[in-house]
Amino acid sequence: MNTLQRLRRTILLVTLAAVAPLQARAQLPTDTLTLRFFQITAEVADTPASRTRGLMGRTALPPNHGMLFVFEQSDRQCFWMKNTPLPLSIAFIDDAGKIANLADMQPFSEETHCSSRPVRFALEMSQGWFAQRGIVPGEQVSGVRIQGAR
Predict the structure, then answer these.
(1) In the chain, at which end, N or C, are there fewer CB atoms within 10 A of the end residue's CB?
(2) Number of domains in the chain
(3) Alpha carbon distance 15, 149 (integer Å)
């Protein structure tokens, strides 16, 4: 293999390595959620692998975009930010779509943030999204669906 062929191969491998994570993210389904009159485009993490990956490695989210975590059953759910550089706010949401509690999470933190009661869903948004809109616990999120009900 000559130098030019090695260079082309290296460029190809680097390009594939950069594109693969984007393709993996693009494969997540999205749902449109409504909170008051705000519409949210949420990537749906409803498998163990997608919930584990979450928003790790992301440095920004488009406006009114987030990630909805869907669990098999209601339980006390906990999150941390160990490998996530993006500051986030999280809403823990019960089976009926009501927000149980909210928390702000700091980048790369190993501090856990847990639901105050059993919930089926968690919605991560850019930090401050809920506070900036005056969203509080008890508010209704429309559009959340139980896994498999798509």
Answers:
(1) N
(2) 1
(3) 36
Give me the amino acid identity at 93: I
**For tokens 């975590």, what's the residue?**
69
The pTM of this model reads 0.80
Q: What is the DSSP letter of 47?
A: S
Q: Rounded to an integer, what distance in angstroms lies between the CA atom of residue 113 and that of residue 116?
A: 9
Burial grade of 121 (CB within 10 A; 0-12, 13-18, 19 or more): buried
- Is the residue at 2 inside a domain? no
Give the span between the Cα atoms of 54 and 48, in whole angstroms.
Answer: 10
In this predicted model, what pLDDT tens digit does every residue of 92-131 receive, in sequence order? 999 999 999 999 999 999 999 999 999 999 999 999 999 9
CATH number of the domain bearing residue 62: 2.60.120.1140
Mean pLDDT of successive 10-residue stretches along the chain, which has 150 residues: 56 45 63 97 96 94 97 97 96 97 98 98 98 98 68
